[in-house]
């Protein structure tokens, strides 16, 4: 059932066990599994409308016609959907990110999970959550997890069918996002992952360590201790940044300010607060804490960056024109 239009909303996610490295880039299979929390903030809203008379796809991002790599990735993704649907139709894709792009929070995870839901509906595909996760993965690995509500585990898998995310039970937690202004544009995750696998002498150890960390995190999520989850997440995040720094030429995503935030979080812990830091491929830091302590943690870190408390949110889902209008107007 499709009238050639699909509209969806999705949110970024923050990995507590990181995805860093692919075993198969063509199929976007990761070297190891990962676990993340999908946000309830910084939505991406995407509308895909088929145009059987058009000669090419068009892509609009935050009110501007997109070109270059951003548009090419959307078109390549639509090609996958067209192949699944047996369609030749071109499409007009319009996307709005609520996250401030300049702050480095606009995410490929929210972007490709929203596009997976919107495009599959526009092309008349009826996909369940696992199938949507597999599809989103083809656009950006981390997008596989933003299809899932709240906490998600992405099973690495050996094949396309086995590599998807699904929900995992965990205690109710919050993340305090501390946004640090990026002075210069960093190397993309995709490129940096390639360089890590190709040049770091520690890459094999990193993959083994991530597999072990995933098992420990699954157990910690089940037994319910936020401190245990946080301890595992912070150590793992620093190990990811260590392996990234060990590439040739090296890449450093954490800035002096990021390190200051990690230190401030350690001081909060010394004072008895539940607070554990993590960071993805950029200088912004996310601090894992309990719902009861989130406002106090945000207050304590407010001098170091722009703080925002985010909670577990919905996985990518279809929305109607009416709901989408507020984002597009
Ligand atoms: C550091 O999903 O952006 O955020 O699959 O090449 O599109 P591609 O990479 P991407 O990488 C995310 C890396 C990370 C860790 C994580 O989200 O697990």
Please write out the topology:
Blueprint: E1 5-10, E2 13-17, E3 22-24, E4 29-30, E5 34-38, E6 44-51, E7 58-61, E8 64-65, H1 68-85, E9 90-97, H2 108-122, H3 129-139, E10 151-154, E11 165-167, E12 174-179, H4 189-199, H5 203-223, H6 226-245, H7 256-270, E13 276-278, E14 285-289, H8 294-301, E15 306-310, E16 317-318, H9 321-328
This protein binds ligand DP6.
Residues 15, 18-20, 28, 34, 108, 140-142, 189-190, 280-281 line the site of ligand DP6.
Major sheet description: 6 strands, mixed
Mean of residue pLDDT?
95
- β-strand percent reads 15-25%
Structural class by helix and strand composition: alpha+beta
Order of helices and strands: EEEEEEEEHEHHEEEHHHHEEHEEH
Outline the structure in words:
Residues 10-165 form the Diphosphomevalonate decarboxylase-like N-terminal domain. The chain is of the alpha+beta class and 329 residues long. The chain is 39% helix and 22% strand. The chain is built from 9 helices and 16 strands. The chain has helices spanning 68-85, 108-122, 129-139, 189-199, 203-223, 226-245, 256-270, 294-301, 321-328; strands at residues 5-10, 13-17, 22-24, 29-30, 34-38, 44-51, 58-61, 64-65, 90-97, 151-154, 165-167, 174-179, 276-278, 285-289, 306-310, 317-318. The strands form 4 sheets. A 6-stranded mixed beta sheet has the order 8-7-9-6-1-16, with helices on both faces. A 4-stranded antiparallel beta sheet has the order 2-5-10-11. A hairpin with a 6-residue loop joins strand 13 (276-278) and strand 14 (285-289). Helix 1 packs parallel to helix 2 (108-122) and helix 5 (203-223) runs antiparallel to helix 6. The protein is globular. Ligand DP6 is lined by residues 15, 18-20, 28, 34, 108, 140-142, 189-190, 280-281.
């Amino acid at each position: 059932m499709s009238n050639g239009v699909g509209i969806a909303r999705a949110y970024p996610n923050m990995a507590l066990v990181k995805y860093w490295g692919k075993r198969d880039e063509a199929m976007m299979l990761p070297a190891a599994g990962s676990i993340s929390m999908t946000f309830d903030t910084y939505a991406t809203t995407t509308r895909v409308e088929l145009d059987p008379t058009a000669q090419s796809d068009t892509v609009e991002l935050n009110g501007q016609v997109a070109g270059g790599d951003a548009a090419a990735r959307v078109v390549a993704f639509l090609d996958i959907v067209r192949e699944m649907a047996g369609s030749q139709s071109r499409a007009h894709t319009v996307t709005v990110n609520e996250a401030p792009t300049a702050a480095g929070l606009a995410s490929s995870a929210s972007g490709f999970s929203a596009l997976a839901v919107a495009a599959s509906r526009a092309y008349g595909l009826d996909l369940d959550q696992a199938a949507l996760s597999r599809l989103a993965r083809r656009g950006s690995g981390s997008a596989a997890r933003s299809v899932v509500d709240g906490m998600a585990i992405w099973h690495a898998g050996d094949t396309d069918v086995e590599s998807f995310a699904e929900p995992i039970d965990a205690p109710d937690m919050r993340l305090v996002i501390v946004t640090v202004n990026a002075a210069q544009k960093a190397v993309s995750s995709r490129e940096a992952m390639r360089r890590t696998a190709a040049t770091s002498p520690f890459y094999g150890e990193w993959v083994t360590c991530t597999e072990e960390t995933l098992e420990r995190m699954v157990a910690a999520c089940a037994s319910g201790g936020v401190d245990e989850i946080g301890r595992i997440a912070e150590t793992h995040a620093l190990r990811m940044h260590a392996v990234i720094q060990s590439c040739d030429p090296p890449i450093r995503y954490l800035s002096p300010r990021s390190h200051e935030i990690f230190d401030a979080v350690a001081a909060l812990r010394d004072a008895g607060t539940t607070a554990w830091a993590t960071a993805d491929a950029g200088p912004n830091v996310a601090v894992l804490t309990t719902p009861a302590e989130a406002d106090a943690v945000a207050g304590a870190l407010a001098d170091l960056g722009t703080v925002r408390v985010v909670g577990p949110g919905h996985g990518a889902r279809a929305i109607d024109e009416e709901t989408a209008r507020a984002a597009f107007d």
